[in-house]
Amino acid sequence: MPVSTTRACLFGGTLLAAGLGHTASAQEFIPTVPGGSDYLGYYSVSVSEGYDYQYSYGYAYSASEAFDWDFDFSTASGWRATASFSPTVARVSATTTTSTDTFPYAYATINAYFEVSQESTLRATWDIPLGSGDDDAEGRVQLLEASGGALLSEFIFDPDDPRTGDESFTLFPDTLYVMTIDATAFGAREVDAFIQFELLPLGDCRADLDGDGELTLFDFLAFQNLFDSGDLAADFDGDGSLTLFDFLAFQNEFDAGC
For 106, 129, 167, 219, which has the most beta carbons within 10 A of its beta carbon? Predict the structure, then answer.
C-alpha cells in the first residue's frame, strides 16, 4: 500500500524530533498458530483485465512472515487490489479508476489467527459501494473467538446491503481470535472498496497512542514514530496512505480530548 515519503513533523507550528526509538503503542496483534494447524495466516491478492493478470497467495508460518504481508497489484488501466497486515492494522482494498471494454476484477483477502498483547479495542471499518449493472463490489468482515468458536461479528455484503460501517469490540489477552477480511470489485465502472481492522488502546481513544489513559506529548511522539515507520495506525484520515492530512486529523482528535 503506498505510503507518502513526506516526513512532516509539524503540530501547530511545533517541530518534534524524529527517530526517538520504540513506538509507545503497546497494543499489538500477536500472530498465533492455532492447535492442529501449521500456519497462522493466509492471504490472496489478484487483479485481472483482459490478458493483464497478476495474482499472489500464500501462508504465514511465523510472526515475521505475517507482518510481511504488504501487496499492491494493479493493471495498466488502473484496476488495483491491496492487502497489508501490520502489528496494529489489517487492511484490504479493491479499486478502479477507469472504464474499459474488458471485464476487470480486483480481489484481496486476509485470514489470520492472533492474540492481543493487552486488553484493547478492535475497530472494524468498511466502505463497499453499491454497484449497478456490471459494476459491483462485495466484501466480508468476520471476527471469531477461535478457541470457543464464538462468532463476534460477521458482515457479508450483497448488492443490496448497507455498505458503510464502523463497529468496535473489546479484545482480551490470552484469547485466540481469527479474522477474515476481504473485498472484491468487478465490472467496468469506477469502484473504491476497503475493509480495515485497527487495534486501538482500550476505550477507543485513538489519540491516546501510548495507552496510558491521558493525552500528552508522548502521544504526539508515538504518532510521529508510527508515521515515520509507515505503520497505517497513523492513517487517521482513513485514506490508506500516510500524508500531512493524517497529522491534521490526529491533532484534531487530540484537541477534542477523550
Answer: 106
